[in-house]
Amino acid sequence: MPNTKSNINVMIDTEIKEQAAQLLGRMGIDQATAIDMFFRQIIAERRLPFQPVVNLTLDEQIVAAAIKSDLKKIELITDTDGNILVDKERNPEIYDWAVNG
Fold first, then answer.
1. What is the residue extent of each domain of the chain?
2. Residue 36 confidence class, pLDDT cut points 50, 70, 90
3. Which of 27, 93, 65 is closest to 37 using CA atoms?
4. Residue 74 in contact with residue 66, Cβ under 8 Å?
5. Would you place residue 69 in the very low, low, confident or very high pLDDT band (cuts 50, 70, 90)?
């Protein structure tokens, strides 16, 4: 089979497209590659396929770590951009994890 390319024109809600493009970018995948992967997987599995995993933001990882380690309830403080601020003195375990992984 020759290696030719075809265009696909799809109308999709602008907000959905932008959100998907942002998440795909976090995965290191552009939209055309994602669609190609999707179609190839459909062929391979003969069904609607996989669920790509979105890498958690640092803030999401901190919250997940706090929940997983069963720490006592703490108040999370955020800056004006919504980033979580971790007090090194009050929450050394979370601070150490955020800095060292």
1. 14-45, 58-100
2. very high
3. 27
4. yes
5. confident
Q: Is 27 helix (H, G, I), strand (E, B) or coil?
A: helix
Chain centroid, CA 90 distance in Å: 29
If we measure between CA atoms, which residue out of 45, 81, 86 comes closest to residue 63? Answer: 86
Distance of alpha carbon 17 from the chain centroid: 15
Whole-angstrom Cα distance, residue 100 to residue 65? 13
Is residue 94 exposed (0-12), middle (13-18) or buried (19+ Cβ within 10 Å)? Answer: buried
Whether 55 and 27 have beta carbons less than 8 Å apart is answered as yes
CA distance 34 to 20: 10
Tell me which residue has tokens 């919250």: 63
Query: Are 73 and 81 contacting, i.e. CB atoms less than 8 angstroms apart?
Result: no
Position 38, amino acid: F
Strand partners, 84: 78
With cut-offs at 50, 70 and 90, classify the pLDDT of residue 17: very high
